[in-house]
Design a protein that fits this description.
The chain contains eleven helices and seven strands. By secondary structure, the protein is α/β, with parallel strands linked by helices. The protein has three domains: 90 residues, Gyrase A, domain 2, CATH 3.30.1360; 73 residues; 110 residues, Isoleucyl-tRNA Synthetase, Domain 1 (Orthogonal Bundle), CATH 1.10.730. The protein is flat. The mean pLDDT is 92. This is arginine--tRNA ligase.
Length: 345
């Protein structure tokens, strides 16, 4: 469930409470859903009860209790906890596997994106340092995926090879406008350009901004010890399975014939990871999530295709759909990091 979808769910809870006579308010056009603040819990939080308390003529906590009861019965919501004067803290539950896979395949690489732009805008500023510039570029991509209008600014002219080799978008000219966020990670200890675009960006983005990145040939190694290789290999395997299935005369079809909770759990978590990566200004959260997705889906892949004289079944089609959904999430996540997801590796 994306933040936009959760906002709609919150508004539906308000509307039901109004229709049933427990609240006498005008249903707002929008419910603000954010990452929980200090003292909060769960995946998301909303202050809708505080917003409605005055027009409803009731204490915020009582309004929160009314909405809590209705939200707990909503699809995709595992639990709702009230904190402070009336904040609703929402923990998401697993999406039904079939519906989840269908949604991922329908939305493609835009799965987890905001459905429409929001009213937020932000200026990102950074020093003229290669890691800061790459981090700013990736953060801008992630924020835009969540509906925020982003402008990037650098404290100096960036070398053209950073654009040509690392694929960063040239920062805008002129002074940044508020609100702005300064991107100042621990600088790169060496020149990452010899690694090439994909490995260099991964080396700079995979560690948290406060950690010192390692710039070495380990990012080029084509083995399981290299997280970037595992992510790209998992994606390439899903694409190869789709080609092989077509040769065998069958394609993907989401279904309940087979369940893989480890894979569906990480796929369902993808929208939340994108929202938190944007909220915390942390592309490393997305990078680590992609490793988790790859590690979850790789054990599934050997069972996707029929073996020997076995005929394709509903289980094979369902496994293929799940594998394609995982490959879609991997490709979309790598794209937001500015890294290529090749079909052959």
């Amino acid at each position: 469930m994306t933040p936009v979808e959760l906002s709609r769910t919150v508004l539906c809870a308000v509307r039901r409470a109004v229709d049933e006579g427990e609240l006498r308010v005008a249903v707002p056009e929008r419910a603000v859903v954010t990452v929980p603040g200090p003292g909060g819990c769960g995946d998301y939080a909303t202050n809708i009860a505080l917003q409605l308390a005055r027009p409803a003529g009731q204490p915020p906590r009582h309004v929160a209790e009314i909405l809590q009861a209705r939200l707990r019965g909503s699809d995709g919501v595992a639990d709702v906890v009230i904190t402070g004067p009336g904040f609703l803290n929402i923990r998401l539950g697993g999406t039904a596997p079939v519906a989840l896979v269908e949604e991922v395949l329908r939305r493609g690489q835009r799965y987890g994106y905001a459905q429409s732009p929001n009213a937020d805008h932000l200026s990102l500023t950074c020093p003229r340092e290669v890691r800061a510039v790459v981090l700013t570029d990736a953060l801008g991509r992630i924020l835009r995926s969540q509906g925020t209008a982003v402008h990037t600014h650098c404290e100096g002219e960036i070398p053209p090879e950073w654009v040509d080799i690392l694929g960063v978008q040239p920062p805008e000219r002129g002074q940044p406008t508020p609100p702005h966020h300064a991107v100042r990670p621990v600088p790169a200890p060496a020149d990452p350009l010899p690694l090439g675009r994909d490995a260099a960006r991964w080396a700079l983005l995979h560690p948290a901004g406060h950690d010192r990145p390692r710039i070495g040939d380990e990012h080029l190694v084509q083995r399981e010890s290299n997280p970037l290789f595992r992510v790209r290999y998992a994606h390439a395997r899903t694409r190869a399975l789709s080609r092989n299935a077509a040769d065998l005369g069958f394609d993907a079809e989401p279904g309940d014939a087979v369940r893989h909770p480890a894979v569906t759990r990480v796929l369902a978590d993808h929208p939340r990871v994108l929202a938190q990566a944007a909220a915390h200004r942390a592309p490393d959260r997305l990078a680590r999530h992609l490793v988790t997705v790859a590690d979850a889906v790789l054990p599934l892949l050997p069972a996707v295709l029929p073996r020997g004289a076995e005929k394709p079944s509903a289980a094979h089609r369902a496994r293929l759909a799940l594998a394609e959904a995982a490959g879609t999430v991997l490709a979309g996540g790598l794209s937001l990091l500015g890294i290529d997801a090749p079909d052959h590796l």
